[in-house]
Amino acid sequence: MNNPAWVVKAVEAMEDYKLLLTFEKGEKKIFDFKPYLKYKINAPLKNPSFFKKVYADGTSVAWNDDLDFCPETLYEESVPFKKE
Q: Which of 21, 63, 66, 70 shows the smallest number of beta carbons within 10 Å?
């Protein structure tokens, strides 16, 4: 069975609370996490050193056992990555 396109295969924390995501089919996109920092559940991510501990957990991204994020949202709300 093929995985959906929104499955996150790799993630890298960037400056200004952005994530560089690599999805199932090799597509690279940038997700701006800043708008989600206003939610209480995401408060620990305001700490830049904690934010940078993000990892791909097999389907989406996570920071620890209690804090992860919806992979469909990551895919739908991210923009294509363009090398400068």
A: 66
Going by C-alpha positions, the residue among 66, 58, 71, 67 that lies closest to residue 29 is: 71
For residue 47, the tally of other CB atoms under 10 A from its CB is 10
User: What is the rounded CA–CA span in Å between residue 33 and residue 51?
Assistant: 10
For residues 12 and 9, what is the distance between their CA atoms, to the nearest angstrom? 11
CA distances to 10, 17, 52 from 58, rounded to whole Å, are 9, 21, 18
- Global pTM reads 0.93
Tens digit of pLDDT for each residue in 14-44?
A: 999 999 999 999 999 999 999 999 999 999 9
